Amino acid sequence: MNTCVVGLQWGDEGKGKIVDILAEEAQIVVRYAGGANAGHTVVVGDEKFALHLLPSGSVRQDAICVIANGVVLDPECVIGEIESIAERGISLAGRLFISQNAHLVLDYHKAEDQHRENALGKNKIGTTIRGIGPCYADKIGRSYAVRVADLCDLDTLKEKLGKNIDYKNKLFSALYQAEPMSVDNIYEKCKLFAKKLAPYISDTTELLHSSIDEGKSILFEGAQGTLLDLDHGTFPFVTSSNASSLGMSAGCGVPARLVDKFIGVVKAYTTRVGQGPFPSEQDNEIGDYIREKGHEYGTTTGRPRRCGWFDAVAVNYSVTIGGIDQIALLHLDTISSMEELKVCKAYEIDGKVTSFFPSDAGTLAKVKCVYETVPGWDEDITGVETYAELPENARKYVNLVEKLTGTPVSMVGVGPKRKQTIIRSR
Ligand code: GDP
Ligand code: IMO
Ligand code: MG
C-alpha cells in the first residue's frame, strides 16, 4: 500500500503528525518537495521533534528515509538534524538515502532570499528566508545550479562555485550594494558537507522502484500546502515548488498511479504565514483565540500564524486538483469552547456567488466569504478516543466538512500526540 500525505491549506496542517502515525505501517518514507522552509512537528510521548528536511518517519528507528530529487537540500540544516536526532538516540546510519539529483541550498541562496525580500519592501512575499526561491530559480535556470552529486567531485564543485559566486557577487553588488561573498569560505564548508553526507548520497529513483518491485509500502510526505503550490496556489504568494500532490511524481520519480491513497491534511480552521490573500481570516479576537489555543506560531520561523475560519471552498479546490481520497481533520480540540463556529461554504466576488476557488491573488483579495454558522461544543475532547464519543455538535461539524468537501474524513485530531488521533477507517 502506497500513500501520499499532503497539506490542503497554506501549510502547517499537521502533516508531520499524520505521516508519523502512518509510518508505523510503511517501510519507506519519502520527502519529495520543498526544503528547510518546512517545519513538521512529531510528538513521541513527551518528546517533540521539529523536522525541516528529514522525513517525519525518521523518528521511527525501522523506517527507511528518502530525501528525493525534488527537495532543495540545505546541507548545514540536514546535517544538523541528523546529528541532533542521533543525540536523542535515533540513528539514521544505513537508512537515510539522499538523492544525488536534489539541488543544494547554499549561503548565497539564503542571502539572495533576504535581499529580494528587503528590496520588495511592502510587496514582500514573507518567505522563510531559507533560500528556497533562489535555489529553485537556479535549478530551473540550469546554468548556475549545484546538485548533491557535485559533492562527490570536489574539483568540479570548486569550479562551479567560482562561476556561481562570481555571478551572484556582481548581481548582489549592483542590485543591493552587498559585500562580496568568498568562494573559499563556501567551498571549505562544502568540503565538510561532502564528508558528512557522502554515506547517504544515492540514486533514490532506483531505490524507490526496486522497493516497489519488492512489494514494500511507501509513504510520500508532502511539504507546505496545496494553496502554496507554485502553479496552482495563490501566486505570487506561494512557495517555489509544486506543493500539492501534483508535485509528488516529478519530485521522486514515482508515477501517481502507483499511489493507492492520497490523504489531504487540514485543520478544523485555517492558518497562513507570510503575505497573501486569506478570505476567511479573522484578524480579531477570534483569530487571537485560535492562535493562542492552537499554539499557532511557525515551527520554522516562530512567526505568529494568521488564523481564520475553515474555508471549504479552498479545501474543495485542493481536493479537486490533488485527487484527494480522504481527509485528516486536525485540531478539532482547538475549536472546542467556542459558542458558534463558521465555515466558509461559498465566495461572493463582485456580487456573484461562486464555489470554485480563484487561485489568482488579485481576485481572491476581493472575495467575501459566505458562511454557514453552526453551534459549537463545550466539552474538552482531548481525551476522546473514538468517533462515537465526540460531542454531537463536534460530529456534526465533521459531517459538515465532509459534505462541503465531498470527501470522507478518515482521521480526526484532538491533540498533538499520536494517541490523540481518532482513526475512523484506513
Ligand atoms: P506540518 O508543517 O503540517 O507538519 O504542521 P506543523 O508541525 O507546522 O504544525 C502543526 C502543529 O499542530 C504542531 O505543533 C502539532 O504538534 C500540532 N498538532 C497536530 N495535530 C494536532 C491536533 O489535532 N490538535 C492540536 N491541538 N495540535 C495538533
Ligand atoms: P510546512 O511544510 C507554512 C510560506 C512562507 C511564505 C511562502 C513562501 O511546515 O507546512 P518560501 O520560504 O517557501 O519561499 O516562502 O510560503 N511557507 C510555509 N507556510 N508552512 C510551510 O511549510 C511553509 N513553507 C513555506 O511563510 O508565505
Ligand atoms: Mg509546518
Q: Can you give keywords for this protein?
A:
426 residues, Adenylosuccinate Synthetase, Chain A, domain 3, Adenylosuccinate Synthetase, subunit A, domain 2, 20 strands, 20% strand
Describe this structure in words.
This protein has 426 residues and is of the alpha/beta class. It has two domains: 3-88 and 205-423, Alpha-Beta Complex (Adenylosuccinate Synthetase, Chain A, domain 3), CATH 3.90.170.10; 103-199, Adenylosuccinate Synthetase, subunit A, domain 2. It contains twelve helices and 20 strands. The chain has helices spanning 15-22, 75-87, 107-120, 132-141, 154-176, 183-197, 204-213, 247-252, 285-293, 312-322, 361-364, 392-405, and strands spanning 3-7, 28-31, 40-44, 47-51, 64-67, 72-73, 96-99, 103-104, 201-202, 218-221, 261-267, 270-272, 306-308, 310-311, 326-330, 340-349, 352-354, 368-375, 409-413, 421-423. It has a ten-stranded mixed sheet with strand order 9-7-5-2-10-1-11-15-19-20, with helices on both faces. Strands 14, 16, 17 and 18 form a four-stranded mixed sheet that branches. α3 (107-120) crosses α4 and α3 (107-120) runs parallel beside α5 (154-176). The longest helix is centred in the middle third of the chain and has 23 residues, at 154-176. The chain binds guanosine-5'-diphosphate (GDP), 6-O-phosphoryl inosine monophosphate and magnesium ion (MG). 6-O-phosphoryl inosine monophosphate (IMO) binds at residues 7, 10-12, 37-40, 125-128, 130, 132-133, 223-225, 228, 239-240, 273-274, 299. 6-O-phosphoryl inosine monophosphate binds next to α4.
